[in-house]
Amino acid sequence: MLDTPAVILMMRQFLDQPSVEAVERVLSLATSDLAATLGELAIGPDEVSEVAGQWDELRRDETWVALLAALLTTVERQRGSIDAPIPIWPDLEDAGPSGRLLYFYLFALGCPGVKELLRSEGCPEHVIDATLGVLARHAAIHRRKWGTTGVDAGWWMLPTLRGEIVHIGSLQFHRVNLCVGTLSPNPWFSEEEMAHLGEGFRRGDPSIGIHIPEAAPLAPDQLDATFDEARRVLGSLWPVHQRRLATCQSWMLDDQLKEYLPATSNILSFQRRFTLLSVWAEDDWDTLEFVFRSPGTALEDLPQRTTLQRAIVQVLEQGGHWRARTGWFDFDGREPA
User: Fold this and answer.
1) Could you give the number of structural domains in the chain?
2) Looking at the domain assignment, is residue 56 inside a domain?
3) 196 & 321 share domain
4) Does 86 map to a domain?
5) 228 and 326 together in one domain
6) pTM (2 decimals)?
């Protein structure tokens, strides 16, 4: 695991230089306005108090001000550029309160702009509200894992604040050009296979990446409603004039789960919506992370209260691996060209 100085160096190398305007916005944001914004984003009062209480301390440190302003500058310059790379770096859990709380400040500063963008594109207000709920959800995950206030996987706030992810129904939907965007499914079809399959499968073709949030309701009727609404909303929000695929890359698509879960399982029902690629990537870490949220815990000490938990541990104890499988289906219902 990278230490804090290495993570901060990685961030500085990726981020734009902070603009003068972004620095001024950091320095001028009133604590009361910060607290009000976080409350509107459903952050709990105790967490709001802690985050707001650290705000003046962060603003007295030029290093943190510059890093926060650089994050804000980069996010806002990349809005509308869905092919811009998405950095995936470790959290700053060990960087003291200012580092641990950094993404609360970024989100409070960046959310008015992404709200304006989504509204200008015609996104429904309830979808905007659900989309911005990602901060509270990742704050809850952080507390569950570490027992402290923070934002788990803080890097995930960046594509949200760039305006390329929306939350509809049970799922998050991500605007991605195949084989271009950072979170485009990988592995994907070979160049020869893409050419044979044609429109919708090719490098650069527009697609919808599907992400499964924490505790997402995956019952078949809930997913039917989710995809019906997503087709309506995204057909207007991100219109295309060609066949478009929905893709998902997740341990939840690992067909090994069929050996352990009942046929009526919501996870297996979700799997059956997709055509799976024959290639995959081993993904033990993400599987353990999503199922248990218990970093550093030995396999034998993990809870095994559910069929899923027992299956995850059993495969790993037997020397096997869990796999991130990629699946696809025709999102808009168009026929191939």
Assistant:
1) 2
2) yes
3) yes
4) yes
5) yes
6) 0.96
Q: Which of 120, 149, 178 is the endpoint of a domain?
A: 149
What average pLDDT score do residues 95-108 get? 97
The Cβ-side half-sphere exposure at 238, using a 13 Å CA radius, reads 22
Same domain, 115 and 242: no
Q: Same structural domain for residues 285 and 207?
A: yes
Using CA atoms, how far residue 303 sits from 228, 297, 307, in Å, is 36, 10, 11
In the block, residue with structure tokens 């353990």:
288
CB 288 within 8 A of CB 314: no
Task: Compute the distance between CA of residue 17 and CA of residue 24 in angstroms, rounded to an integer.
Answer: 14
- Tell me what pLDDT residue 136 has: 98
Query: In terms of residue numbers, what domain contains 279?
Result: 191-330
Instruction: Classify residue 200: in a domain, yes or no.
Output: yes
User: Do 207 and 308 belong together in one domain?
Assistant: yes
Tell which wins on pLDDT, 335 or 227.
Answer: 227
CATH code of the domain covering residue 298: 3.40.630.120
pLDDT digit string (tens) for 280-310? Answer: 999 999 999 999 999 999 999 999 999 999 9
**Whether 92 and 218 share a structural domain:** no
Residue 112 and residue 30 share a domain: yes
Q: State both tokens at 210.
A: 């599907």
- In the predicted model, is pLDDT for residue 337 greater than 60? no
Contacts of 10 (CB under 8 A, 6+ apart): 2, 87, 89
Distances (CA, A) of 143 to 2, 89, 268, 285: 21, 19, 29, 19
- Judge whether 212 and 171 are in contact, CB under 8 Å: yes
